[in-house]
Amino acid sequence: QWAYELGHSGEEPVNIPLHACEHFYLLTHPLKEPLASNLPTIVDPDGRIYIRNWQGGILSGGFEKNPKPLFTEGRNQLEIQHLQEDWDHFEPLLSALLRRMPDLEALQIMQLVNCPESFTPDMRCIMGESPTVRGYFVLAGMNSAGISYGGGAGKYLAEWMVNGYPSENVWPLDLKRFGSLQSSRTFLRHRVMEVMPLMCDLKVPRWDFQTGRQLRTSPLYDRLDAQGARWMEKHGFERVKYFVPPGKDLLDLDQSKTFYKPDWFDIVGSEVKCCKEAVCVIDMSSFTKFEISSTGDQALESLQYLFSNDLDVPVGHVVHTGMLNEKGGYENDCSIARLSKRSFFMISPTDQQVHCWAWLKNHLPDDSNLTMEDVTWKYTALNLIGPRAVDVLSELSYAPITPDHFPSLFCKEMSVGYANGIRVMSITHTGEPGFMLYIPIEYALHVYNEVMNMGQKYGIRNAGYYALRSLRIEKFFAFWGQDLDAFTTPMECGREFQVKLEKGMQFVGQEALMEQKQNGVYKRFTMFILEDHDTDVDLWPWWGEPIFRNGRYVGKTTSSAYSYTLERHVCLGFVQHFDEKTGEELVVTTDFINQGEYEIDIAGQRFQAKAKLYPFSSLFTQRRRKDEVELSGYQRE
Ligand SMILES: Cc1cc2nc3c(=O)[nH]c(=O)nc-3n(C[C@H](O)[C@H](O)[C@H](O)COP(=O)(O)OP(=O)(O)OC[C@H]3O[C@@H](n4cnc5c(N)ncnc54)[C@H](O)[C@@H]3O)c2cc1C
């Protein structure tokens, strides 16, 4: 609890978003036959209670559905010193305890204790260095699991403080996954009321918090909402999952909480189909956007050192590149457009806003001629995906945008409708043709309306992130935060071509990558197509499923999706090679990947899978050609 207060007590505030709830537990006198001190803790998730030994008696508490956050009356810390017992509030937990262990009724209760217990906005603890104050390390917000986490969390934080980084990927716990936006007391109070009961609930895939929502929204939010958008949240930003077509039972869809085939299957399928055959628009405004510029060559020189791909490209080109650490691992994976000789526009994943900013601030030279600005809020981003995106955009702008004039990975400022200065990039993050439009926010509604009106004759419709996910996974595109992290390198995921190793330039991570190039890699990003998996009846893969090669465990999946093109599930994940006798890690070669028989284990059931190191690009090209012929039929729909 105090971490929040302490963080705000300095001149430069450190935001540590956690908030305490009142936590009730009762203590009994010892049993006639005192309980053994090594009695395991018993947890009854249905009853929302835990039971453990306490001096030969019972200590039992729980996580009620209606928690009481502290500071409810806006009172100060004194509230903590005067927490009262509340038997009415504890009654459901007491009933659950007596239902589970009826004999306890005879036990004499000693005390009902009320103490503060801290929770975080995503139920994961908070650790790491502050993004704003160097050397300020945090380990807090244990979500009532501080004893279990204590040892590991302490170890990784100690490594972090001593070596500058922990020995495992702890991004899900990193303080930098949060920013000031999660630090409002009202937000925290509402959110922890949802978090605490979750301690006993089953979390299904694609599950979202319901509290603290509509904090960051695109200017198009209301327009999209009125058209049936279903929302999810990332870093406080509302993003569309999919659009419910008119006439569908909305209530039913909201309840699609399952590990099996979800209700949105057909809806997302039709959005994917439209991306492949006509044109879709996805609002991707949540992307993190920075502008970096300088008076001379400082911006180029600094970025060349901090990024692994060559950024000295002609003005108007977009470069896909990693921002690597000394070990060659991805601290960020982003697209950088060269706007002029001395200015760059950088697009990163949504949850990079704090981490990437802090990394660049710490690594860029302290030079008043070099400036960096977070322009995330200034631009609405629309992704126009599909073979007809070019037609829509051509009609709305007078600039030629056919592939001859506007090749892939190109960026140009142009007017769209009445609006000027729209940054258009020929990139869609899906492997499909189309454009990203970065629109100054005051023009967002105008450009969206123009695109939708003009798009009518090309079969345009709205789409959401689930369609995007299916498209990118079937193309074998890795995403930072899901597939890539600070412990995966470009060499391990087939991206050597995005690294300037041969150009004689120095950059962070270069030595580590050189070594991998010479000696090989110990894990390899691989695509799996499930063979005997029945999408309708079998449990779906989500992520984290074990991968078996010739019956032996070799790694885990990092993301998966149903491919509506291949009509199969696709899983992405890393394959390792362990010596059969010693368990020692060995180099993973292409032959090793290609010569194995694979299975993916979904909740204990294994499914055969075909491993691929390269996407089925030929298959997708063929399909697209065929679809072009069928396009006229699509327009009549
Ligand atoms: C009844 C109960 C049962 C639990 N059971 C489990 C369990 O089974 N498994 C599990 O993993 N977790 C369990 N927890 C949660 C776990 O105890 C906490 O998550 C963990 O103790 C939090 O660790 P901490 O170091 O952040 O805070 P704390 O353990 O609360 O440590 C904070 C320390 O700071 C001291 N302090 C406070 N203010 C000041 C000040 N102004 N100056 C100096 N010192 C100060 C306090 O006295 C205290 O020693 C349980 C908690 C409770 C209440």
Automatic annotation (TrEMBL):
| Keyword Transit peptide included in the entry's annotation | yes
- The FAD dependent oxidoreductase central domain covers 163-218
* Classification via Pfam families: DAO, FAO_M, GCV_T, GCV_T_C
Kindly state which keywords UniProt assigns to this record, in alphabetical order. Answer: Mitochondrion, Transit peptide
Q: Identify the domain of life.
A: Eukaryota
Question: According to its UniProt record, where is this protein mainly located?
Answer: mitochondrion
* Subcellular location(s) per record: Mitochondrion matrix
Tell me where in this chain the Aminomethyltransferase C-terminal domain is found: 523-616
Give the FAD dependent oxidoreductase domain ranges: 2-160
Which residue positions does the secretion signal occupy?
none
Example GO CC term: the record gives: mitochondrial matrix
Residue span(s) of domain GCVT N-terminal: 220-503
Subunit comment for this entry?
A: Heterodimer of a catalytic (PDP1) and a regulatory (PDPR) subunit.
Q: Which family is this protein grouped under? A: Belongs to the GcvT family.
What is the recorded function of this protein according to its Swiss-Prot or TrEMBL entry?
Decreases the sensitivity of PDP1 to magnesium ions, and this inhibition is reversed by the polyamine spermine.
Q: Matching PANTHER family, A to Z? A: AMINOMETHYLTRANSFERASE, PYRUVATE DEHYDROGENASE PHOSPHATASE REGULATORY SUBUNIT, MITOCHONDRIAL-LIKE
| Protein name as annotated | Pyruvate dehydrogenase phosphatase regulatory subunit, mitochondrial
